[in-house]
Amino acid sequence: MDSDAVEIEHLTHVFRARKHAPHIAVDDLSLTVAHGECFGLLGPNGAGKTTTIRLINTLLPVQTGSVRVFGHDVAHHPMAVRALMGYVPQQLSIESALTGRENVEWFARLFDIPRRERRARVDAVLEMMQLTESADRLASTYSGGMVRRLELAQALVNRPALLVLDEPTVGLDPVARDSVWGHVRQMREEFGMTVLLTTHYMEEADMLCDRIAMMNRGRLSALGSPDDLKRAVGPRATLEDVFRHYAGADLNDDSEGGLASVRQGRRTAGRLG
Ligand SMILES: Nc1ncnc2c1ncn2[C@@H]1O[C@H](COP(=O)(O)OP(=O)(O)OP(=O)(O)O)[C@@H](O)[C@H]1O
Questions:
Q1: Residues in domain ABC transporter (predicted)?
Q2: Could you tell me the pTM of the whole model?
């Protein structure tokens, strides 16, 4: 493929709610994600990461600027974009009253995978996510880590060229987190897939991402490899230092991007798992 996996040019998104002042969630953002790259979108709560992802995956209409996925403009060819993409959202995307297998089959049908191929494809992604033995149990009996792996299986069943993960390991214990990281790595190695992820875990971004975009208040504040970003902040700087450097005063603001609200988010997600 010649084109970049994702090309974002001068993207701006304004939320307008009645009785509230317009809120600029994404503010003149431009960046590209190369084919085969693992790219991280980082930034404090409210920085605009999820809004950017929802614009890329066609769940929000583009207002200003443009987004192309493997050369397809998301505003003009949304179905082509959806066919190329797997998405694991922040919110739970499984149906707890169905078995693991039924959850993946449901996605296979949504993606119009032909009936004769469906069973083999579903089995393959369940196997890859080490869910074969528990595939016929209700998803309501799964642990938080298994739920995340089931969501990855759903997102992979149409063999996407671009996998988009919105906080893939939030609320998981360290062992379950390691397992998700391992699976993301394995998928990249086996399929050369492009991965775009958001996370609040700096260790995760450092280990998985080839390049990272730091966002703050809708704008791009830094872009580079984890090592480049660390070097630019200072000798022996960690990615957490980089995060603090660019998030600045926002980390003390509990109403929007504060660390306290990040912790609250993790606690909430922990209960979901
Ligand atoms: N549907 C909406 N209506 C109004 N404002 C919204 C809506 N969705 C998001 N926002 C606002 O847009 C801003 C960016 O939100 P977004 O969810 O993109 O941030 P984020 O970086 O993903 O944050 P988090 O790390 O908490 O997931 C926030 O101020 C948020 O309150």
A1: 9-242
A2: 0.87
